[in-house]
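Subject: mismatched residue count in predicted assembly?

I count 584 residues in my input, but I want to confirm that the predicted structure covers every chain. Input:
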Amino acid sequence: MAADIIIEAKNLSKSFGKFKAVEDLSFAINHGDVYGFLGQNGAGKSTTMRMLLGLIFPDKGSVYIKGEKFGNGSRHLLKHVGAVIERPDLYKYLSGWDNLRMFAQLSGVPIATNRLHEVLEIVGLKGREQDKVKGYSQGMKQRLGIAIAMVHNPDLLILDEPTNGLDPQGIYEMRVLIQRLSKDFGKTILISSHLLYEIEQIATRMIIINRGKKITEGDVTTLLSPDDTNIDVRIGAFDITTSLKASQWASALTNAVDGKLQFRMNPSNIPALNKWLVAQGVDVYEINASHSLEAYFLSLTNEDNAKA
Amino acid sequence: MLRLELYKIFKRPRTYISFAIITAFALVIQLALVADGKNFISFALQGVNEQFDVKGNILNGYLVTYIILQSLLVQIPLLVALVAGDVLAGEANMGTMRLLLTKPVSRTRLVLVKYTASVCYALLLITWLAVIALALSVSIFGAGDLINLKSDSFVIILKDDVLWRYLAAFGFAALAMSTVSALALFLSSFADNAIGPIMGTMGVIVVLMIFTTLDLPIFNTISRYLFTTHMIGWKGFFDDPVPYAAITRSAIILAIYTVLFVGATIWWFNKKDIQS
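Triage response: the counts match. Full output below for your records.
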C-alpha cells in the first residue's frame, strides 16, 4: 500500500563518465521493513544509497520520501531519515558527546539532552561519551554513527556496510543492535553488507543488484525458500550414487563426489535422508544444512555475469 | 549552525597556529627594533636627513606597527587560507561531509555558514594582529608622529591623527581578507583535501601580485581589475590627503569579487556529487 512506503527509488540511473554505476533501478521500502541491499563490490549499492540521501544526484529517475519528491529544494525530508554511509567518519578531535550533540542540532527537530543520553544507552556507549573519538575503536565509531543517525528518531535508518571493519564480537553486537532497532524501536532499516549471513539473519525483504541493475527483489522468506537449502553430507568411502539416483532422493541430489553428497531440499527431510543412508550401509560422518543466501546470491550474480 | 562551525574551527589546535605565527612574527620585529632600531631608522632616513632635520621619537609604536603590517602582506592571506581552504575540503577529507549532508541542511546554507565562520576567523586574526602589533608596539615604543616613507616621497602624520587611520586600515584589511576567504572557499569546494585549496589560494595571490607589482604596460591594463591590486588599499589611509575615492573603489571591487567567489561556490556545491 502506497501509504506504507517510507522511501521509493524510481528508475534511478547514474553514470560516472562511461561507467554506468546504476541503471534504471526501482524499489520501494515499506514501513517496518529490514531491507537487505545486496550486490558485489562495485555493483552500485553505495551509489544508490547516496542518491537516496541526496549526496549524489541521479542522471535520471527520482527518489520519494514519504510520498514527496526529494531533491535539493526538499532537503527537509531528510529529517525522516538517519544514515551511516560507508565508514562513520566523525570529528576525531571532538568527544563522542560533542559529535552527537552537533549532529543532533542539525537534524531538523528539537532534541532534548535526555534523548542524547538515551541513544548513547541504546548503542552501548554510555560512560565513554566524553572520550575523544580519536581514541574510539572501529566498533565504537560505528555505534556512535548509529547514535547520530537515530538521535532525531527518524522513521528510516540507512546503514551502508555497518559491520565493515568489525571483529566477530563487534559484528555480533552490531547485528543484535540492528535487530533491536527494528523490533524494539520499530525502525525501518535499509542495510547493505558483504556479510550475507548477517543479512539473512536480520532482513525481512531484500534486493540484489548486479552491475547497477536489479536482479531480484522480494521477501526473504519467499526468495530463500527452505526447499532450496543446501544439505552437505560427508560419508565413508562407499559408492552410493547408483542407488541414490534410483531413490526418492534423486531429484534433490545436486552433486556426489569423493564421499561428499550435496542435496538441495527442505531441511525437514534430513532425518529421513540419514535413516535411508544408514539403511544402505553408509557411514554418515557429518550432515550440514547451509541455507543459503550466499548460494542464492552467487547463483544469481554468476548467472547475470555470464549473460553479460 | 554558525555557532557549531565556529566551535569546530576553534576546537582544532591547528587553528591557533596562525595566531602563534602572527605573535611570533610581531615579537621578532619588535625585539629586533628594540635591539637595533636606531641604526635601522638612520638607514631608512638616509635620504630624508640630507634635506630635513628630523627630530623626536621617530621609532615609535605607530611606525613599528606599519613595518609589521608591511612585512605581513603575503603571510596574512596564507594564514586566512589555512582555515577557509579547509572548511569544505577538510570535511570531505575527514569524511564528515557525507554525514553532514545526510542532515536536513540546505547546501546553500551550509556554504554560507562556512564562509561566515571563515570570515569570523579572519576578523579575529586581524583583531589579534591589531592587538599584538599596535597595542604592544605602542606600549613598548610609545606613541609619536608616523613617518610614512614611500619610494619617491614621505608623509608625516601627526600623532593625534594616526590611531583612527590604523582602525580604518584594519577594517579595510578585514574586507580584503573576506575576499581571500571567499577565494579559498571557492577552491575548497573542488577539492577533497585542504592542501590544494590552501596552496591554490596562495598561488593565485602570488601570481596576481606579480601582475600588480611589475610595472609593465600589458600588466597595467589588467592589474586595476585584479583583487590583489586592491587588497593593499589600506595603505591609502596613511596618505595625506586620504584618497577616499580610490579606497572606496577598491572596497567595491573587493566586495564584487567576494560575491562572485561565494556565488560560484554555492552554484558548484549545489550540483556537486559527494563521493568522498
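Chain A has a mean pLDDT of 86. Marking this ticket as 'not a bug'.
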